[in-house]
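I have been asked to look over a protein record a colleague put together. Alongside the sequence sits a line of tokens, each denoting a local backbone shape. Please read both lines and tell me whether the tokens look consistent with the sequence. I do not need a full report, just your reasoning and any doubts. I have pasted the whole thing underneath without changing anything.
>
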Amino acid sequence: MTQPNKSHGRKTIRPSAVPRSLMDDPPRLAHAWTARIVTLFPEVFPGILGASLTGKALQEGLWQIDTVDLRRFGDGRHRNVDDTPVGGGAGMVLRPDVMARALDDAAQGTPADRNLWPVLALSPRGRRFDQSMAQGLSRTRGVTLICGRFEGFDQRVIDAYGVQEVSMGDFILTGGEIAATALIDATVRLIPRVLGNQASIEEESFSTGLLEHPQYTKPVDWEGRKVPDILLSGHHANISSWRRDQAERLTKERRPDLWRAYCAAHGKDPDGDQEL
């Protein structure tokens, strides 16, 4: 009989008089990277994260997802979670007392060290999420994600809990759930064994600071459009050099910001290499 892997997917044992099939919470998996999500809509998870390679990895216990229903911690008979902005203004703001109760619940069993377990709020005013941040998060034990709604969060709870605000880009969503899904997907795929082919991660866009080179497959001649001859040469050094040139050209044309950062890191002149 095949023995289970000792580093992933092992359930932690907790005595309970309630049959597991009737328990609200899924079983905890020891040593699995965890995304803990504070949201008003826990039913939307795992969503697309439960499909394809991330879904397979979820089933295999390489990572797990927990949801914390913010509404459970609401105030009064109607479980209110928001109120009007102090000082006036449009919209509603998530209450600090409600959010604090949810964050206290989400913190159970997690390390206090934010380097081991960051607490992030999805917010358009936060630091821009990028591949480097995804790589850093994949090396933690897990992350707590706060999905915003309405006009956002009371600043006091952000300050009190050391919450880091993170933005997926310069656009506005109706809530943080879609942003959280994207962040989790980008992070989980970097966890060892999730994709199966580590080399593919190392070659993709942003991993080297450049956009990825063009990709081709069969047929070699499709409606008169042919695969570049160099890719058919079998000369791996020349192919590698061509791909690097293409990646640099595309980055310079489409993402001048990335190109400048790449040149600064590699001692290159961003205005040079005109042939690119």
